[in-house]
Amino acid sequence: SEQPQTPTSEPSGPQPPQTLLNLITTVVSLLLLSSLTVRSFVGRWQVLRSKLCTLQSSLSSISESPHWDDNSLLHTLFPSLLSTLQRLKPLSDQCTLSSFTGGKLLMQSDLDIASSSLSTHLHDLDLLLRSGVLHQSNSIILSHPEPGSHKDDLGFFIRDVFTQLQIGGIEFKKKALESLLQLLNKDEKSTAVVAKEGNIGYLISLLEVNSQPLIREQAVLAVSMLASSSQHSRKIIFEEGGLGPLLRILETGSVSLKEKAAIAVEAITAEPENAWAISAYGGVSALIEACRSGSQPIQTHAVGALRNVASVEDIRLALGEEGAVPVLVQLLVSGNTAT
Question: N or C terminus: fewer CB in 10 A for the chain?
């Protein structure tokens, strides 16, 4: 019997969200049917079928959300998802016929790549659905909450910002971080809600050197502001593994990044239960070097961090062994910082 044709996206510019959703839903239905007739790589297709069923459920939930077609993230997620699904259809046809144009190894690789892409799409859609932002109009979410705004409005705004940060492209990430920094600047009390509602672990992952430079700089500033704001924020940053990346920035970052990182490290080590971790992360030498060769703001905060951790006996011994005393004496003599 003749196989049903897989819909293809029109090349003439972006499609409306509803059209894309209809195309995606149709291709998913076709793939689910095809997955029942494959004769090769059956195990891989069972995994793919499970993911396609999950996707079908997610698409149904999205279509039932009152403001889904207003969400700008879906305008970029849907075309990418459709492309992945359309690449899967000819693979299913070849696996049904057990006829592989590029050989079995290439087919295995193509299926694994498609399966991995599908997992990424499912993760992004799940994050979007769980954030609750599809139940709010863009006009509500994207308006900056004023200081003293209701916690529910603030929570929605922060969840939307972190959703864009996690699953959007570079421009979405930049705009999300700009919004987060504006909020932290305008409303000091917002930091507690950011720590509770935001994915601080993901924000910390942006501190790594492979992040886009501007995004990394904005992320370091956001982490520094959160660390300086409250004990609860510092606790979350520490528990999410923020101290290690901050110390690496203190060693290898630009002057601007080092200054922000030094502020955060001093704030985090102000909590006695966090001080021991400086040694675990190999941070003693980084702090001493920051005191020796950093700018004046870096030196000031590095000295503050050393003062915080010196209460731990093992670290106090390490400070002596690694030559901290002459460096601190030199700073005291030069008057560069308050030691």
Answer: N
The amino acid at 299: Q
User: What's the mean per-residue pLDDT of the chain?
Assistant: 86
Contacts 24+ apart (CB under 8 A), 173-181: 173/206, 173/212, 173/215, 174/214, 174/215, 174/218, 177/215, 177/218, 177/219, 177/222, 178/218, 179/144, 180/222, 181/218, 181/221, 181/222, 181/225
3-state helix, strand, coil in the chain (%, to 5): 75, 0, 25
Q: Which structure tokens are listed for 125?
A: 């859609």
Distance CA 170, CA 9 (A): 24
- What is the share, in percent, of the chain residues with pLDDT greater than 70? 87
The mean per-residue pLDDT over the stretch 303-327 comes to: 75
For residue 314, count other CB atoms closer than 10 A to its CB: 11
| Domain boundaries along the sequence of the chain | 17-135, 143-286
User: What pLDDT does residue 230 have?
Assistant: 87
Burial class (CB in 10 A: 0-12, 13-18, 19+), 139: exposed
Name, in order, each residue with C-beta under 8 angstroms of 285's C-beta and a sequence gap of 6 or more: 322
What angle (nearest 5°) sits at the alpha carbon of residue 241, between those of residues 239 and 244?
A: 140
CB-CB contact of 80 with 118 (8 Å): no
Query: For 3-71, where are the alpha helices, taking DSSP H only?
Result: 17-35, 42-64
What is 143-286's CATH topology?
A: Leucine-rich Repeat Variant (1.25.10)
If we measure between CA atoms, which residue out of 117, 112, 102 comes closest to residue 55? 117
Distance CA(213)–CA(179), nearest Å, equals 18
More confident residue, 130 or 218: 218
Check: CB of residue 121 under 8 Å from CB of residue 56. Answer: no
Q: How far apart are CA 86 and CA 109, in angstroms?
A: 16
Structure tokens at 49: 């079928």
Single out the residue of 27, 46, 24, 43 nearest to residue 35, CA to CA.
46
Query: Nearest to residue 25, comparing CAs of 78, 91, 77?
Result: 78
Q: How many whole angstroms separate alpha carbon 99 and alpha carbon 13?
A: 35
Among residues 278, 258, 259, the alpha carbon closest in space to that of 268 is found at 278
